[in-house]
Amino acid sequence: MDRKEISSIGDVLRQVIAENDMQDRLDELKAASGWRAVVGDYVADLTCTPYVRNGAMTVRVPDAGLRHELSMHRSAIINDLNRIAGRQVIKSIRFIS
After folding, report:
1. 26: number of CA atoms within 13 Å, CB side?
2. Residues 81, 89: contact at Cβ < 8 Å?
3. Chain CA centroid to CA 1, Å
4. Are strands 92-96 and 56-60 parallel, antiparallel or unpaired?
5. Residue-level pLDDT at 3
6. Are strands 51-53 and 56-60 parallel, antiparallel or unpaired?
7. Mean pLDDT split into 10-residue runs, the chain, 97 residues
8. So what's the pLDDT on residue 2?
9. How many other C-beta atoms lie within 10 A of the C-beta of residue 6?
């Protein structure tokens, strides 16, 4: 980066993100942060914060009944999380105990 140019902080951040291939990871984090908005406060309080890596979200769910219920709505949850992220970031969700 040439120091003679004057750039906004936003431009510099976009350049750093692009140069370091960080956009995919940032989109994954954005999708994970939408978990509470998608499943609601009650379910979000019962589950652990989701972890996303390479398009696969993992969510720790303590109760077998809740795990089954979430599994039944897996496709809708994935669609809603991807809508929040602005593109298809989440490809699968795994519910574990």
Report:
1. 10
2. yes
3. 31
4. parallel
5. 62
6. antiparallel
7. 73 77 83 95 95 94 95 97 94 95
8. 54
9. 6
pLDDT at residue 70 in the model: 97
- Kind and range of the H or E run holding 77: helix 74-85
Q: In the numeric block, which tokens belong to residue 21?
A: 């291939």
Structure tokens belonging to residue 63 = 């109760």
The pLDDT of residue 11 is 83
3-state class of 76 per DSSP?
helix
Q: Is 66 helix (H, G, I), strand (E, B) or coil?
A: helix
Cβ contacts of 76 within 8 Å, gap of 6 or more: none
The full 3-state SS of 5-65, as one line of letters, equals CCCCHHHHHHHHHHHCCCHHHHHHHHHHHCHHHHHCHHHHHHCCCCEEECCEEEEECCCHH
